[in-house]
Amino acid sequence: MNIYLRNFGIWLGAPLLLTWLFALIGIYIPFLNWIALIGGTITGIVMTHKEIGGRIQFGKAFGVIAMILGSFFVLGIVRTIIQWGADDIGYMLPYMFSSFFIELLFITYILVFTGMWYMFEKAGKPGWGSIIPIYNLVLMTEIAKKPTWWIAMFFIPIANIVFMVMLMDGQSKSFSKETGFTVGLVLLSPVFMCILGYGDAVHVDGNGNNTGSETSDSDLLDQL
Fold first, then answer.
1. Per DSSP, which regions of 53-204 are E strands?
2. Contact 222/215 with Cβ under 8 angstroms?
C-alpha cells in the first residue's frame, strides 16, 4: 500500500493541494482542478505500474485515490467555511457532494481505460487503440483470434450478443483464463479487462508463445 500512497500522494495529492491553496487565496485558474485530477491520476498509475512491474491492484489504486479525494472534500469544506462562513456551508454541501462523486466516477473511468490500454499492449497491440471506437473492436478480434468480419455481426440485434460472448470467450482463452473469467468479461467487461491489463496475465498465440510484454517501448503513457 505504501507504493500506492507515495505515488498517488505525489502525483495526485500534491497538484490537488496546490489548486486548493490557490482557491484559498482567491486565485482561480479555469479547469486547473480537472487538469490536476486527470494528469495526477494518469501519472500516478504509470509510475506505480513501472515500480511494481506491471501488476497494479485495481482495488488498492482505487482505494488510495478515493481516500485522497475524500481528504480534499474535507479540505473543501474547511475552505468554504473560511471564505464564506459556517452559516453558508449547508447551501454548499449538496454541490460539493455531487462534485465529489463526479470526480470519483471520472477517476474510475481513467483507471478502467488505462487498464484496457495495458491489456491491449500485453497482446502486442497499440494501447491507444483501446480508446478508438470500431478500431478497438478490430484489435479485440485479433487478440481473441477471431475473424475481423465478426465486427459486422455486432450491429445485428440478438446476433451481436452471441458473437460478443464468443469474442469475450476467445479473449479470455488467449490469456489462458478459464470459463469463469469469460463470464466476468461478459458481465463486467471493463473491470475484467483491467484485471488482464494490470495483473500478471500473459497473452499467448496459437503456439503458446507470448505475443506481448508487460510494458511496451512505444507506450505513450510511459513517456510521462
1. none
2. yes
Number of neighbours of residue 134 by Cβ within 10 angstroms: 9
State what percent of residues in the chain have pLDDT above 70.
Answer: 90
What pLDDT digit, counting tens, does each position of 184-224 carry? 888 888 788 888 888 778 888 654 555 554 443 333 333 33
In the chain, where the domains are located? 2-120, 125-223
Burial 81-119 (b: 16+ CB within 10 A, else e): eeeeeeeeeeeeeeeeeeebeebeeebbebbbbbbbbbb
Q: How far is CA 18 from CA 29, 32, 109, 155, 204, in A?
A: 11, 10, 24, 47, 45
Q: What is the pLDDT of residues 149-183, one digit of tens each?
A: 988 888 888 888 899 899 999 989 998 888 888 89
Distances (CA, A) of 118 to 32, 48, 97, 110, 127: 27, 13, 32, 12, 6
